[in-house]
Each structure stands twice: as structure tokens, then as C-alpha cells.
Design goal:
Blueprint lengths: L1 H40 L11 E6 L7 E4 L5 E4 L3 E4 L5 H12 L8 E7 L4 E6 L5 E4 L6 H7 L13 E6 L2 E6 L2 H5 L14 E4 L1
Length: about 200
């Protein structure tokens, strides 16, 4: 009986160990994927910028896949292709462009591009806020979200004279803010921010 029992255990214990190994990684992708979820949702609308990090995957071509930092000049570097323009494109557009370029080297390449870190999108806060300076911008970030991320207004803030400085299409704009109305829940006053906006709180 004992040799038979040992034989069963010899097969059973490794199988348990393998099963535990199989289950463990299943939890890890969820942890890694969670921060990238907003980026995945915005894959057809988010515009890539310098310092963003992209996960480029070419199906069945691990040597062509990897995490890539978008350089200050807006380029990424890929094997076979060299420098490829990434800034100014959505992840879906970039994936299509890489696939088109790879057709010179392989048949029907399948490419996916996932944004793993948003570093290019920042807004700035100046004046009477808890934390001055740049903050990371999330997709669809509003005025109230940005001020909240900066620790809110100080006791000395003049909420009636808050404004946003914005450079768009070469034009310098000063946009007045109706902070108290926004706080009351009126979404028309809770402006959606754009990358590079500066919120000034006198």
C-alpha cells in the first residue's frame, strides 16, 4: 500500500503545484491591466504624445514586440522599421500604420498598440491651491477634478476670479471659470480640460 500511495502522491503533488502556478499569473494581468483601462477605452480617440509608454505587440513576432517610450521628437523605434511617428496618432491609427509598414517584410501582420502610461498629458495649477505645478491628466479630466487633484482651493483663494489659460491653434485664450456654479453640479461650468491648460487661482 505504501509504495502505491507514494506513487499517487508523486503524480498528485506536482499537478497541484502546476495548477497553483497556472492560477497565480491569472491574477497578475488584472493588476497590470487596471491602470491602463482608461487608455484602452480611449484607444480610438486618445492622441499619443511624447513621453507616453506604448505596448506594441506583433502577433507571433516577440522580437518585434515590447514596451516603447515615445521620444521627445514623437518617434518610436522598432526593429526592421526604424523610427516610426507615434505622436499625433491614436493607438489604433499607429497599429494600422505599423502593420502597413511591416507588410514589406511579412504577410498579413497583426499589430496591436496599447497605451500603458500617460505621461504627455499634463495640466498646470498656479496660485491658491493645495499643490501647485503640473498634474497628470486623465482622459476627460474636468476643472473640478483637476482642482481636487491639486488638494483643492486654499482659504485665501478668490473663487470668483479663477481662469484657464489655453493655447490652441496658435491662439492664447483666457477662459473665465464659474467655480461656484460648477460646484453646484452644473456641468456646463465644469469645463473639460485640454492638455497644457493652466488653471490660475488668484
Amino acid at each position: 500500500m505504501k509504495p502505491g500511495t507514494l506513487l499517487i502522491l508523486a503524480f498528485f503533488v506536482p499537478s497541484l503545484f502546476c495548477h497553483a502556478q497556472d492560477k497565480e499569473p491569472a491574477g497578475k494581468p488584472a493588476e497590470v491591466a487596471a491602470p491602463a483601462l482608461p487608455a484602452a477605452i480611449a484607444a480610438d480617440s486618445y492622441v499619443i504624445g511624447a513621453s507616453d509608454v506604448l505596448a506594441v505587440t506583433v502577433w507571433k513576432e516577440p522580437t518585434l514586440s515590447g514596451n516603447l517610450l515615445v521620444r521627445p521628437d514623437g518617434m518610436i523605434s522598432l526593429p526592421l522599421l526604424g523610427d516610426v511617428q507615434a505622436a499625433g496618432m491614436t493607438p489604433l491609427q499607429l497599429a494600422d500604420q505599423i502593420a502597413a509598414k511591416l507588410q514589406k517584410f511579412m504577410q498579413d501582420p497583426k499589430v496591436s498598440v496599447v497605451l500603458t502610461q500617460i505621461n504627455s498629458k499634463k495640466v498646470f495649477l498656479l496660485g491658491e491651491v493645495g499643490k501647485k505645478g503640473p498634474i497628470e491628466m486623465t482622459p476627460g479630466m474636468t476643472l473640478l477634478e483637476a482642482i481636487g487633484s491639486a488638494g483643492g482651493l486654499t482659504d485665501y483663494a478668490n473663487a470668483k476670479k479663477i481662469y484657464i489659460l489655453r493655447d490652441e491653434a496658435g491662439k492664447h485664450q483666457k477662459i473665465p471659470v464659474h467655480y461656484k456654479e460648477a460646484l453646484k453640479g452644473d456641468s456646463t461650468f465644469n469645463l473639460v480640460l485640454k492638455p497644457g491648460d493652466t488653471i490660475v487661482v488668484p
